[in-house]
Amino acid sequence: MPADVPAYASADVPAGSRWSHLRPASAGEAARYRAEGWWTDETLGQFLDAHLERDAALPARVWSDVHAFRGSIADVRALAAHVAGGLRQRGIGPGDVVAFQLPNWVEAAATFYALCMLGAVVTPIVHFYGPKEVGFILRESGAKALITTDRFAKRDYLLDIEGLLPDLGSLESVFVVASDPGAPPRLPGWALPFDHLAGAPALAEALPTDPDYPALLAYTSGTTRDPKGVVHSHRTIVFEVRQLAAMQADRQRPLLVGAPVGHGIGMLSALLVPRELGHPISMIDVWDPQAVLAAMLEADLSAGSGSTYFLTSLLDAPGFEPAHLEKMREVGLGGSPVPAAVAERAESLGISIVRSYGSTEHPSTTGSSHKEPREKRLHTDGRPRPGVEVRLVDDDGRDVPQGEPGEIWSRGPDRFVGYSDPALTEEFIDADGWFATGDIGVFDADGFLTVTDRKKDIIIRGGEKVSAAEVEEVLARIPGVAEVAVVAAPDPRLGEHGCAFFRMQPGAESPDLDSLRGQLAAAGLAKQKWPEEIRSVDDFPRTPSGKVKKYTLREQLRSEGRA
User: Fold this and answer.
1) Out of 201-215, 369-383, 474-488, which region has the weakest mean confidence (pLDDT)?
2) What's the CA gap between 174 and 203, in Å, rounded?
């Protein structure tokens, strides 16, 4: 670690903690970020509490068939204050890790705001993650408390948690939001109703803590078989909120958000950026295009921004009409690849498209405005955002010439401070603060970046990252499989989906999709990670060392005219 990296210490959070391996910006960079006004001493809790009070009269609404809500931001803020007070009574305070796994319900918003008010390290979990992912996150994060629900769709969350409890030594409390408020479930002895928190005395104000300390621990799938814990400080995430809000300052209508608040895109779009913009809370717990179209007209909302799927699903939905089109004249796409055909189709309908590039680690790396030339908006991922520096480097870490592809390295005021795993922090952040993204890009003569490929072995399906290695580990256990490689295939709706290439043992037949799904379901893997396409090969294209050349497989799929 560089000698001038600041230590994490405050009256509330002791030095020498588990976070001592992190690599925030150097003292020199931090001084520049403060001098430019990009960083302030405001914590995430203070930022949110002030904005929730300012926006108290605005509406807050959740569209749901099972857990709908209609009220005001004042109602959400009041619930958050009670939840924060209840957690405080149970010893939760600044620096404590607390996880929540909830659909896009009002309790998810209130829980998120409550944890920020406490100065806790908020650990959101995507609501469709299964016991495999949830168990890893709870163990690796060391969460002291979990706020979840009893069931949603076909998932029995309590059954999942019960099976995990013997391995969750740090978990002290589990609070359960009733999926049916009219018929709360009978809870096991190890769980408490969410009402125990909601009925507690309210916390009067956000607790003070060190703004350099971790505020958010967000798990994202990547090159490893398990999710990676991405750590943001109060300073980095507050700047990101303001950075992203500035990119959306011209948005005329609030956005209806269907991306899960347990994911970075949903969390920013539903709970954080609207606070800076002064917009209402507008969420839907299931992305049903018909329900979204109806909500747009009823509440005068926009929709379709985010990953490509959110746009294409609306354009293809029965009942999409000019009245909807009028509410989505400007759409921002990011979080997954944007096929040129999708961007051009939207443009032909009169929708101005802008693309952006980022990750949970560095959320707003590049982007465009709607004032940029059409060619730049549709076919590049924009220019580096204010304060953000981007380099393209070769395999030896040397800068490549303009127009040549190279791995994208970035740093800036919203770059994360490291991973929860010290080895990953060491691997991906160098001593000068550069984050090696694993993505490949090219700069044009005007400074616009186009992401062309990735070194990371992931699939970005509808904005969600899927670890190919995690899926391969399960598929390799199918009888008769000699070797399997899972790669990203272009998808006109989702941006990408998984395609499994199998090399079988002599005499064995390649599995079909139904048998694959059975294996993956039995392994507890989230359905969104299941491959949606199968190929058989006699052998794989390989490097001289014998490694499978996945780039060649991806190129094969692209060349078949799928993009």
Assistant:
1) 474-488
2) 20
Which residues does residue 121 pair with via DSSP β-bridges, in sequence order? 97
* DSSP letters spanning 415-427: S--EESSHHHHHH
* CATH code reported for the domain at 41-241: 3.40.50.12780
Nearest-Å Rg of the Cα atoms of the chain is: 23
- Work out the percent of the chain whose per-residue pLDDT is above 70: 94
For 469-522, give the secondary structure using H, E and C: HHHHHHHCCCCCEEEEEEEEEEECCCEEEEEEEEEECCCCCCCCHHHHHHHHHH
Mean pLDDT taken over the chain: 90
Distance CA 563, CA 552 (A): 16
- d(CA 181, CA 500) in angstroms, rounded, equals 42
The CATH fold of domain 1-37+329-456:
Rossmann fold (3.40.50)
Tokens 């030594």 sit on residue: 169
What are the sequence ranges of the domains in the chain?
1-37+329-456, 41-241, 458-562
β-pair type (330-333, 281-284): unpaired
Tokens matching residue 278: 């002064």
More confident residue, 558 or 206: 206
pLDDT digits (tens, 9 = 90+) for 429-478: 999 999 999 988 999 999 999 987 777 677 888 888 787 877 887 887 78
Length of the chain: 563
DSSP code of 525?
A: -
Residue 47's identity, in one-letter code, is F
Q: Tens digits of per-residue pLDDT, 523-534?
A: 888 888 899 999
CA nearest neighbour of 55 among 37, 38, 39, 71: 71
Angle between helices 106-118 and 73-89 (to 10 degrees): 50
> How many angstroms separate the CA atoms of 62 and 291, rounded?
12
Q: How far apart are CA 320 and CA 315, in angstroms?
A: 6
Phi-psi group of 105: left, alpha or beta (phi > 0 → left; psi -120 to 50 → alpha; rest → beta): beta
Burial, 35: exposed, middle or buried (Cβ in 10 Å; 0-12, 13-18, 19+)?
Answer: exposed
Fold agreement (1-37+329-456, 458-562): no
The 8 Å CB, 24+ separation contacts for 214-217 are 214/8, 214/19, 214/22, 214/95, 214/121, 214/417, 215/43, 215/44, 215/116, 215/119, 215/121, 215/122, 216/44, 216/121, 216/122, 216/123, 217/97, 217/121, 217/122, 217/123, 217/141, 217/420
458-562 CATH choice from 3.30.300.30, 3.40.50.2300, 3.40.50.1100, 3.40.640.10: 3.30.300.30
